[in-house]
Design goal:
Blueprint lengths: L1 E4 L13 E6 L5 E7 L2 H6 L13 H6 L2 E6 L3 H15 L13 E7 L8 E5 L11 E7 L2 H14 L7 H5 L6 H4 L13 H15 L4 H16 L3 H19 L11 E9 L2 E10 L2 E11 L4 H13 L9 E3 L7 H8 L4 E3 L4 H38 L12 E10 L2 E11 L2 E2 L5 E4 L8 H19 L5 E5 L2 H14 L5 E7 L3 E2 L5 E2 L5 E4 L7 E3 L4 H33 L6 H11 L2 H5 L3 H4 L7 H11 L1
Parallel strand pairs: 8-11, 11-12, 13-17, 17-18
Antiparallel strand pairs: 1-4, 2-3, 2-4, 5-6, 5-7, 8-9, 9-10, 13-14, 14-15, 14-16, 18-21, 19-20, 21-22
């Protein structure tokens, strides 16, 4: 790897060969990784034409000090190496897309005797389609859209929607069978073959193959109408309308059936929102947004986005990708995305309308995010004034760390720290803690330990927050203040947030005060009662709730991991595990018991008791 000084001119020594380049700052940290068919030409493109020596991209002019290159034999090798280096160094200015939501899908378990449609979630649509005798359909935009789809589907194909436990214990049909929404497999109202036909028809509908069923329903409707059986004709008409809603509810129709993805960008400064529409079989099957921050221009940014989305087989690459402008190195990108993949910039027609739809969604999503960002910034500024922080160095955003403790009795005590920067979650600042020095259940001591460890590390790394928010009242705040004093982080403001306790009224009844939030800035002073619709209150509640969610998630993981030690012992099945936990309260209690105490549990002999203690010891 060869390094060159980066400045106003591109070094002539840089070769005109394919390869990868990395910009680094003065501390040697990687700022950006890119690839090129011609390294010298690509690096020259980062300076404005005209010879005035200005750098075209601000972060390069401000931060870049050196550029390192790696020559490769082919353009394809450069693409693969770029992806590897981005994963290795995680440069702040490269595009790394992360979906923060899971996908709603419908699953049919074909291994069941009478399959039913079920709600499932997957982090990617392809995650739900792996292995097993199951079929998945979707994704769907929301729970409401999915429920409406299944409701309409049930009017066309009367499948059961009850659980196995309910179906296996029924002695007569339910009300849905009486109104024609279930074929009653619970009481042998349909044969297994007939039910299988219903399932196949339902899966065909969800796949978009409805032509045969539409013709069948229309024929039945006309036949009933000609026979002057207008009530039956009306039922077939309603089922046909429900069928249309089921298919159309998954997305808009395209005139052709080409599988394509449409990508549009909306920008406000360095804030960018990417909106992606996927069309398959003439229908829109996916609509997703990705938010990111990048100073790169359109072609360079679009190249990074498409690489992040599809390079390395992370997603199935569609044959056609519609984009607003051709990305940089478009021919290289097409070749490496796969045989037959085409990038198109539409000038008119249906593709242009699809791109306009994606752009409209991108602009709306970006406007919503920017408005929320503005409210968060105002709330963070209000919080700073409320706790006595007048100014922040360099106009940087306010950094707030939120802490919470989670436990089940004296075992598995864990804690979480979440970080909000300028009112926005900063995932890189999230931390998890196992409480080490506190025996048993002592929330005050646990909070003191965790806050102290976090602040001590922050002082060592120069990464202290401006405010520490504790979930609790004056007692928890006093513990956190002791931790701050022990560490010496005097500039950090420590506060706590607690809901008001119910107040007693005459006659012994209580008045609910759950809507009141109290902010403690000192354990020896009365707290502030935050107004109900105040932006600062909403921000503090978000931080507290996120810390609680993060702690609970970690606690469940730890609890499950510890229990798995008991489950993995040969001879200890679910019944004996439950008996042991019921007798000793926790896995820790089992580990602290003697052989004589353990053998008192039904089904556990001396040999198994010794084996349990050896496994947990």
């Amino acid at each position: 790897m060869t390094s060159y000084a980066w400045g106003k001119t591109t070094p002539r020594e840089i070769p005109t060969k394919p390869g990868v380049y990395m910009f680094r700052d003065g501390a040697g940290k990687v700022l950006y990784v890119g690839k090129a068919c011609d390294l010298r030409a690509r690096l020259r493109s980062y300076t404005l034409e005209g010879g005035d020596g200005r750098i075209a991209i601000r972060f390069l002019d401000r931060d870049a000090r050196t550029v390192e290159i790696v020559i490769t034999r082919t353009d394809s090798e450069a693409l693969l190496l770029e992806d590897t280096l981005i994963k290795q160094h995680r440069p702040r200015h490269n595009v790394r897309l992360k979906d923060d939501k899971s996908f709603l899908m419908v699953r049919f378990d074909l291994g069941e005797d009478f399959p039913r449609p079920k709600f499932v979630r997957a982090h990617r649509p392809e995650d739900g389609r792996k292995g097993g005798r199951a079929r998945f359909f979707g994704p769907y935009a929301s729970t409401g859209a999915l429920r409406r789809t299944l409701s309409d589907l049930q009017r066309v194909v009367p499948l059961r929607d009850c659980t196995d436990a309910v179906m296996n214990h029924r002695s007569r049909p339910c009300l849905k069978h009486q109104i024609g929404l279930c074929c009653a497999p619970c009481v042998d109202g349909v044969t297994a073959d007939e039910y299988a036909d219903h399932v196949a028809r339902a899966m065909a509908i969800l796949s978009g193959d409805t032509a045969e069923l539409e013709g069948d329903l229309e024929g039945r409707m006309r036949a009933a109408s000609e026979a002057r059986e207008y009530e039956r004709a009306g039922r077939w008409r309603d089922r046909l309308a429900a069928l249309h809603r089921t298919v159309e509810g998954q997305g808009v129709r395209a005139a052709d059936r080409v599988e394509r993805v449409v990508v549009a960008l909306a920008r406000a400064g360095e804030s960018v929102l990417v909106h992606r529409l996927a069309f398959r079989g003439g229908r829109m099957v996916e609509s997703r947004s990705h938010g990111l921050r990048s100073p790169l221009d359109g072609p360079e940014l679009l190249h990074g986005i498409l690489t992040a989305l599809y390079a390395g087989g992370r997603r199935g690459v569609p044959p056609e990708i519609v984009v607003p402008v051709l990305p940089s190195d478009a021919e290289l990108l097409e070749k490496n995305l796969g045989d037959g993949v085409v990038l198109r910039v539409p000038r008119g027609g249906e593709r242009r309308r699809m791109l306009d739809l994606a752009l409209e969604n991108a602009r709306a999503g970006l406007a919503q995010r920017e408005a929320a960002r503005g409210r968060d910034a105002v709330a963070a500024s209000g919080l700073a004034k409320l706790v006595g922080i007048e100014t922040l160095a360099g106009d940087r955003p306010l950094v707030v760390d939120g802490f919470d403790i989670s436990n089940t009795g004296p075992s598995n005590v864990v804690a979480s720290r979440v970080r909000f920067r300028g009112g926005i979650p900063d995932r890189n600042g999230y931390r998890r803690f196992r409480v080490r020095t506190v025996a048993g259940q002592d929330d005050f001591a646990s909070m003191e330990e965790v806050v102290g460890r976090s602040l001590r590390r922050g002082m060592d790394e120069g990464d202290l927050p401006d405010v520490v928010l504790i979930d609790g009242g004056a007692g928890q705040l006093r513990s956190a203040l002791r931790a701050r004093e022990d560490v010496g982080a005097w500039d950090v403001v420590v506060v706590s947030l607690a809901k008001a306790r119910p107040e007693a009224r005459e006659g012994g009844r209580t008045r609910k005060a759950a809507m009141e939030e109290r902010l403690f800035t000192s354990p020896d002073q009365d707290p502030y009662v935050l107004p109900r619709h105040d932006d600062v209150r909403h921000l503090l509640e978000r931080i507290r709730d996120e810390a609680h969610r993060f702690a609970i998630t970690y606690h469940r993981k730890e609890r499950g991991r510890i229990k798995s030690k008991l489950d993995s012992i040969p001879g200890v099945g679910p019944a004996r595990r439950k008996a042991l936990l019921r007798r000793f309260g926790s896995v820790v209690g089992v580990a602290g018991a003697s052989v004589e105490e353990i053998v008192q549990v039904d089904g556990v002999g001396p040999a198994l008791a010794a084996k349990i203690l050896a496994a947990l010891g």
